[in-house]
Amino acid sequence: MNKDLKAIKPNPILGFNEELSKEEGLIPLTLGEPDFNTPEHVKAAAISSINDNYSHYTNPRGILKLREAAAHFFAQKYGLNYDAKTQIITTAGVTEGIFDSLATILNPGDSVIVPTPTFPLYMDNIQLHGAHVIEVDTSEDGFVLTPEKLKQALAENENVKAIVINSPGNPTGISYDETTLKELAKVIKDSSIFCISDEIYSELTYGKPHVSIAKFIPEQTIVLNGLSKSHAMTGWRIGFIMAPADLIDMINVVHQYAVTSVTDNVQFAALEALNNGADDGLEMRDVYAKRLNLLRAGLSKAGFASPKPTGAFYIFAKIPEQFTQDDFAFSRQLAHQAKVGVIPGSSFGKGGAGYIRISYATSENNLKESIKRIQNFVKQEG
After folding, report:
1. Contact 311, 168 (CB under 8 A)
2. In terms of C-beta density within 10 A (0-12 exposed, 13-18 middle, 19 or more buried), how is residue 207 classed?
3. In which domain of life is the source organism classified (predicted)?
4. Proportion of the chain in helix, strand, coil states, percent, rounded to 5
5. Model-wide pTM > 0.85
């Protein structure tokens, strides 16, 4: 067996969700799964492509029209300029994009800086490729990596090959602002490392538009994005890697051996989403924003402190001080007694202990009922 694989535990989020699923009457606020359906015009495009017999291999990088649509979308939305022919690969979701990117740049013994708390997939993938994870706890800095802490991590560790940035972030919902990204970009540029920037929640930002670090260091950045969150297309598995042409050539080798090419008709659905549904995600975003305000106000009354999310659809809430058990024990008790399912903060690495992640990608009725249950639970048990 792969010795690196033996050291990796199953995904803690999926595992805990599976554990709680046995709880009868539970309201699950656990997974990052939009409760919206894929837009009708996108589904119709997929059906049409199937009827037109689009069921064959495509160019491994994706059909050119789709890559052109992606290049236009990301240029119009975020000012990113990528050549469709040479700088974009269509992937089976951002999950594949993370794997491909790390497999391309890492050698055994390399290190990757990961600001935590964060989605555990990054850390597991790094270890799977024989590299070391350098966790930088951001809990004392508003869940944002500071340039000073990045400099410190670079100075204290050897063989640093890359840094992973997730903005807007999972599990915190916090986005990096333009000023911070510029400062981080300068440190990254001076250190000559790669930046893997996961921007899957870029269409779900509140108050300010999304900014990509690739605007400042495009020659060192691998941008990962897709349609899972913006167009409620998690099950379609469609994403994009954008990077300099020479790096894309190398990533494409891994991509070809991993999946050959993304499903043909799914690419035509994505083409429709980008060409005729570029703003589909904004309506969903407005609904999420309303839910965020509702949930955060209810949690505050129950004694949960949390930074106000600026993107995604999660609240990372500090468990009230009167509860002394760890976040896993607290989350289990909340599920068993209040019938509300959340994810323990420790699942997301350093800085997550004592927190819970709550997804508000669910109905307003579910959230209102969950708030009542949580408030009653705190009164009875706190």
Report:
1. yes
2. exposed
3. Bacteria
4. 45, 15, 40
5. yes
